[in-house]
Design brief:
alpha+beta, Jelly Rolls, 8-stranded antiparallel sheet, 6-stranded antiparallel sheet, 4 helices, 38% strand, Ice-binding_C
């Protein structure tokens, strides 16, 4: 039984590793559009913690989100971290209800130009059913102004922009350039790798052998007891 447990544990470990390697782009919102950024504050600050951008994405099947990327424009300052949130419906009309998930992550910030950057956030483990959701992004910079970069196209609904308190001073603006990364939950569960099957079969074989051996030992012990009687 101990050998069986080891074999099954090894199979589970390998299966988990294969699932982790299956991460792919679940949604691509396009872009970034050439020299197109947005920071129309209408009297509110566009810098630091002064803006939140929300845009929607769609999942065609149950999925596990492992991260996302987005493009932003820097007037000055440096990247600090990203506040993110995932909403079940448009925050413009459901801000009071709050997001399904939220957090703060320190992403990898890669310069794409003299004042532009691509931020990659990883390490998430968010399971969602198929459907349409909204991604909220707040780009935290150490001083200076930042703004998001548009994708140059409109997919699903238009993006929106708000203050931290939920004042949507731009409720319908150009789509943001971002992607959603992850894996299809159903695909991960339904298609084990050949090596995983091999380990599982080996484990079952070990159990069958152990059961046959135990049965034979029990019979031998029984015959010995009868002979002594």
């Amino acid at each position: 039984m101990k050998k069986f447990a080891i074999a099954i544990a090894a199979a589970a470990t390998l299966f988990g590793a294969n699932a982790a390697q299956a991460a792919t782009t679940l949604w691509d919102n396009g872009g970034p559009a050439a020299a197109s950024n947005w920071c129309s504050s209408s009297g509110y600050s566009c810098g630091g913690l002064g803006w939140n951008i929300y845009d929607d994405f769609s999942l065609t099947a149950a999925s596990t989100i492992s991260g996302f990327t987005y493009n932003s424009y820097y007037y000055s300052g440096s990247y600090n971290s990203t506040n993110w949130s995932i909403w079940a419906s448009n925050p413009v009309t459901s801000f009071a209800a709050g997001p399904l998930f939220s957090g703060n992550s320190i992403g990898t910030n890669t310069a794409t130009g003299s004042r532009t950057a691509l931020t990659t956030v990883t390490g998430l483990n968010i399971s969602l059913a198929s459907g349409t959701y909204w991604l909220g992004i707040q780009n935290n910079a150490n001083g200076g102004l930042t703004s998001y970069i548009t994708s140059g196209q409109t997919l699903l609904n238009r993006a929106s922009q708000s203050t931290n308190s939920g004042i949507f001073y731009n409720p319908s603006i150009s789509d943001a350039a971002f992607t959603i990364q992850g894996s299809l939950t159903s695909a991960v569960a339904a298609v084990p790798e050949p090596a995983t099957w091999a380990l599982m079969i080996l484990g079952f074989g070990v159990v069958a052998h152990a059961m046959r051996r135990a049965k034979a030992q029990a019979k031998a012990q029984s015959r010995g007891d009868l002979a002594l009687a």
